[in-house]
Amino acid sequence: MAALVPWLAGVAVAVAGFALLRGLLHQGIRASLAAPRIAHERTPAALGLGFEAVRIDTVNRRRLHGWLILPAAHDGTGHPAVIVIHGWGGNAAMMLPLARPLHEAGFAVLFIDARCHGASDGDSFASLPRFAEDLEQALAWLAARAGIDARRIAVFGHSVGAGAALLAASRRSDVAAVVSVAAFSHPAAMMRRWLAAKRIPERPLGRYILDYVQRTIGHRFDDIAPVNTLARVRCPVLLVHGADDDVVPLDDARRIFAARTHEAVELLVLGGNHDSFADLEQHMAQLVAFLRRATTPRSGDGPPRQGQLPDGAQR
User: Fold this and answer.
1) SS percent in the chain: helix, strand, coil, step 5
2) The whole model's pTM is what?
3) Are 285 and 179 in the same domain?
4) In degrees rounded to 5, what are phi and psi of residue 151?
5) Sequence-ordered list of residues with C-beta below 8 angstroms from that of 205, at least 6 positions apart, any chain
6) How far apart are the first and last CA of the chain?
7) Do 115 and 230 belong together in one domain?
8) Gap between the Cα atoms of 153 and 176, Å rounded
């Protein structure tokens, strides 16, 4: 028995050491993957647009920051609207080049910062599913807003925000259309590119990291991958991708497009890379035309309803 005591002590030390190393590894993974928080460098006022700064309740008792830009004219019916969400490490100000074309086309436009980004509240971590949660909360908030036609709200997302837009639309009936810009086809593929850039071998450490991330976010990558969620989206979708994107290859957009299950899915390839679309400005007319088609009331839809969600819509 006396000899057993030192052995048990050694085991206890080994277990404690392993737990410490694992904790440090988890901290390192989170720190490496954490999104940078970048402050806004401008507001819609810089474009000469009137706006309302808003706060929107979201999950975990957090609040989102947003800018709501309403059309100047009001014809007595509810406005069609677009909710715009940025990508990983971005913020609402980075998406402001969309503001004037959408505003002039007669859309109400809501720009939001996801949690842990811009001027929104922080949380324990950010993830594609949490982007989608924030987008859904913004959708419910905007649908309840007076002067907005709840049947004609589209979502516009970039990168992780694009994946979130597809995920949100895949589980809701109240999204009129999705514009997905530079979405990756599958989180695992994106993570493997990140591992390769960091020169982290996939076995065993890379696989451990992938499993840890899935456990942390509470979702399997297969369940949230745009290449899979697109099949569950029933509204019109426009996939936009840069031909020179070296962060998310153009092949990712082609894979997502190949997974479509209805004809109202389009693919638009532009010049430019992941964050800068050289041709986007000249193609804004095409994007606006897509949104107008998707948000035009169909015969039999009845009058627009302001401040209400359609029957069967989820909050």
Assistant:
1) 45, 15, 40
2) 0.87
3) yes
4) -85, -5
5) none
6) 63
7) yes
8) 5
